[in-house]
TrEMBL record:
It is found in: Cell membrane. This is Capsular exopolysaccharide synthesis family protein. It is a multi-pass membrane protein. Residues 140-170, 458-504 are annotated as: Disordered. Keywords: ATP-binding, Cell membrane, Membrane, Nucleotide-binding, Transmembrane, Transmembrane helix. It comes from Microbacterium proteolyticum. Its main location: membrane. The chain crosses the membrane at residues 12-33. Residues 478-487 have a biased composition (Basic and acidic residues). Pfam families: ParA, Wzz. Residues 2-89 form the Polysaccharide chain length determinant N-terminal domain.
Amino acid sequence: MELSDYIRILRKNWIIIVALTLIGLSATTVFTLTRTPIYESSSTIFVSTQAGGTAAELQQGSSFTQARINTYVGLVRTPIVLDPVIEQLDVSTTPAALAGRVSATAALNSTLITITVSDPDATRAASLANAIASSLSSVVPQLEPESNDGSSPVRLSRVSEAQPALSPSSPNTPLNLAIGLIAGLVLGLGVAALRTSLDNKVRTLREAETITKAPAIGAIAYDVKARERPLIVHADPLSPRAESFRALRTNLQFLDMGGRSSFVVTSSIASEGKSTTTINLAIALADAGKRVALIDADLRKPTVADYLGIEGGVGLTDVLIGRAAVDDVMLPWGGRSLFVLPSGKIPPNPSELLGSHKMGSFLSALEEDFDVVLCDAPPLLPVTDAAILARLTSGAIMVVSAGRATKHQLAGSTEALNTVGAKLAGFVMSMVPTRGPDSYYSAYGYGYGGYGNGYRKDTPARKKWPRRTAATSGIAGRPDEPERALEDAGGFSRRATREAQRSE
């Protein structure tokens, strides 16, 4: 993964990361505020020997006290030391309970014992520490064996009095808040990484390129009104989504297909936008002056005729079985150099018809008469029609819907084309978000927030023409349709330019 991938993951999951970080911080804040403050006070005792005047005797006494120091540390929490303290201060507790709040330490090679007491009351903590130090100083000489003169060889002297603490030692508010903040952040990053690893959807161009090993030739911007105006290049030619199809048209012209110009447009599964992509691409090519043949080769669930508002009862199936001639059933559409061949009646053997020798000859003939031939085919995974038909054309164009098809489905559809020896010319990412971490356009600055708004004008939708049949349409088209000039390299027609100037 590259740095951009990590940034995309953070942008995509920033709400979860921030939420969990705040939860961790809030939890530790509540925990800290509900804890009882504990104060600590310490008293220090010096352990020494009382006998010895020479240097050797002093050294021997020092070694003796260092050897016994750990024993004295252990005595601090015993009842023999704590009982007198409880009685002296009249504390309502037991030696065992008091021992839980007392600690004693001695540094290495040192004869100093530090006694620390923790208590919610700072004054009481200091009193307990001093009392325990006094009690230990009295108990130890009694336990040690007496010397020849009847005195104890060990003497404990208090060298540091415990003082009431000015601030509590617990809870440590800054430390607790830092721990909560870091714990929440780590948890948020972990959840983000887990979501990313479990997400099996194809969402970016890079993921699709890795799976298909084919180039990306287009990305179609998502439009919430796509169902209301599926033919966006015809209905609203100045919209960002229409511009996406013009970019696809440009990229398609740079594909090296060995001199051929027929393509099968398909997808992995249904509802990825293959039919609308095919039709809009055909319109964009025709607006650029190309002579385009659009064939509805989906002989299972044809939709091209419905989208274009033409009669689809007679079409491709009638041509393949010899019931009708191509000139009688191929209809001009939209006053452009675009000719549409509907699917015709749904046959009982779609795969056989599409893979027949007559279909191959038919496509070859169309390639001689048209600049580009586009075939709208069924999805690859449910049926084999598209794979069979792709073998007869110059290549297949895969439509991949962002966030809909899974990686396994895209890999399976790619393998279906490779199995029959068909070429995958490239793929088109459809329904690409215009904003957010998965946005293609925001990465390049061309989306709704980029150049798209700069050229966007509120132009009225083009009128829908009534359904036409072969009997009512000539090859030259309707003479009463509005005049449409060919689009220039920027993709703007003269009519759209005039309308934009009037709106200003």
